[in-house]
Amino acid sequence: MEKIFVDLGKESYTIAIEPHSWSGFGKKIRALSRGDKAAVITDRTVDGLYGADLEQQLRAEGFQVRRLVMEPGEDHKNLDTFGKMVRACADFGMTRSDLVITLGGGVPGDLGGFAAASFLRGVDFIQVPTTLLAQIDSSVGGKVAVDLPEGKNLVGAFYQPKGVLMDPVLLRSLDRRYLHDGLAEVIKCAAFGDPDLFAALEDFSGDEDVLAHAAEISAACCRIKVKVVEEDERDVGARMVLNFGHTIGHAVERYYHYEKYTHGEGVAIGMVRLTRNTEKMGLTEPGTADRIRRLLQKYDIPTEDPISDEDVLAGITMDKKKRGNQITLVIVPAIGKRMLKKVDFADLRPYVKG
Ligand SMILES: NC(=O)c1ccc[n+]([C@@H]2O[C@H](COP(=O)([O-])OP(=O)(O)OC[C@H]3O[C@@H](n4cnc5c(N)ncnc54)[C@H](O)[C@@H]3O)[C@@H](O)[C@H]2O)c1
Ligand SMILES: O=C(O)C(=O)C[C@@H](O)[C@H](O)[C@H](O)COP(=O)(O)O
Ligand SMILES: [Zn+2]
């Protein structure tokens, strides 16, 4: 078992990564909560696969359980679903000593975490991530949110879970598209923070290799993420590096109403478009954009979209790295390196052009 401690003072917690640990999750959750009631926030697909089993495990530990099930997909990570979830928590009669468990990918994780942060002004929650993306990124670090038509994750909070429980074996039921979606964020992490992981992904023969090494991949990405979150929990500096590819990526996701691309696909398009431009500007070593593009394409992840420069710029106006009329861009000068650069919004076009 791999245990990674997230050192955030009173908000500290442990990420436990262990293949075949699923059947022990009920006991692990009981060790983290003395609550009477557990609300499991999940989506319909994940509920069908794992919901009843988790409920049984939790009941065996003495919890009263209610499964609160949303429709799957980014286009449901919104205020409407959030409203339904917090009302369902009220209907369940939860008190401040009770528990929310988010079971699923980043969508129920972000939305359920925000429900936990808001209901009664905060009840404990535990992340049980079941996608690669959620195991390597979204379940860690306490960013919880929902989307608005105006932009991604525009309503949310920083609210840390009490623990994160991962069983990489659960990834075996994922559709290929979502395995690849998570790989886009793995490639993001490797691009700015782990050249050895980047090279390993280049050497893998394909999906089977990724699944066979899922525990190591999650541990590598979580370690990188934990380090920056510990340094800058509130995203005012160092943490912004985790947003590589997201400035353009979020604009692309929003432009297509969160329906055309998964989050990882948007990030992939964003990483390649930005890095091609920073190469032309002499900020990135020649060949870097192509190396990122080739690795993404190896896993069938889209790297191009015809969205116009104007539409990208319009989508970036609500980016959370914007302060006044300046925005911080995350640039990869070479694989394994990172740079934050403040740019006037008026000078942004050459960085985002297609
Ligand atoms: N909070 C953060 O730090 C952070 C970081 C990265 C991404 N995110 C957010 O995460 C979201 C994307 O997460 P995602 O890619 O996990 O999407 P998701 O939650 O929509 O999951 C993708 C699909 O996989 C299905 N699924 C989940 N687990 C499964 C399993 N084990 N077997 C079979 N099917 C399964 C789901 O039903 C869904 O259809 C975005 O909203 C993004 O903004 C947040
Ligand atoms: O945890 C972070 O910080 C990240 O930026 C991780 C990203 O992969 C993730 O998509 C995050 O939700 C983006 O945050 P936002 O502040 O740009 O909405
Ligand atoms: Zn992301």
UniProtKB/TrEMBL annotation:
Keywords (A to Z) from UniProt: Amino-acid biosynthesis, Aromatic amino acid biosynthesis, Cobalt, Cytoplasm, Lyase, Metal-binding, NAD, Nucleotide-binding, Zinc
Entry's localization field: Cytoplasm
Function: Catalyzes the conversion of 3-deoxy-D-arabino-heptulosonate 7-phosphate (DAHP) to dehydroquinate (DHQ).
Higher taxonomy: Bacteria, Bacillati, Bacillota, Negativicutes, Acidaminococcales
Organism of derivation: Acidaminococcus fermentans (strain ATCC 25085 / DSM 20731 / CCUG 9996 / CIP 106432 / VR4)
Record-listed NAD(+) binding positions: G106, V107, P108, G109, D110, T130, T131, K143, K152
UniProt pathway: Metabolic intermediate biosynthesis; chorismate biosynthesis; chorismate from D-erythrose 4-phosphate and phosphoenolpyruvate: step 2/7
Record gene name: aroB
Cofactor: Zn(2+); NAD(+); Co(2+)
GO biological process: one example: amino acid biosynthetic process
InterPro entries given in the database record: Dehydroquinate_synthase (IPR050071), DHQ_synth_AroB (IPR016037), DHQ_synth_fam (IPR030963), DHQS/DOIS_N (IPR030960), DHQS_C (IPR056179)
Cofactor binding, note field: Binds 1 divalent metal cation per subunit. Can use either Co(2+) or Zn(2+).
Domain 3-dehydroquinate synthase N-terminal residues, every copy: 68-179
Protein name: 3-dehydroquinate synthase
Family matches, as Gene3D superfamilies: 3.40.50.1970, Dehydroquinate synthase-like - alpha domain
A Pfam family: DHQS_C
Domain of life: Bacteria
EC number: 4.2.3.4
Molecular function GO labels: 3-dehydroquinate synthase activity; metal ion binding; nucleotide binding
Catalytic activity line of the entry: 7-phospho-2-dehydro-3-deoxy-D-arabino-heptonate = 3-dehydroquinate + phosphate
Record: residues binding Zn(2+): E185, H246, H263
Similarity comment: family membership: Belongs to the sugar phosphate cyclases superfamily. Dehydroquinate synthase family.
Location, primary (coarse class): cytoplasm
A GO cellular component entry from the record: cytoplasm
Alphabetized CDD domains for the sequence: DHQS
Top-level enzyme category: lyase
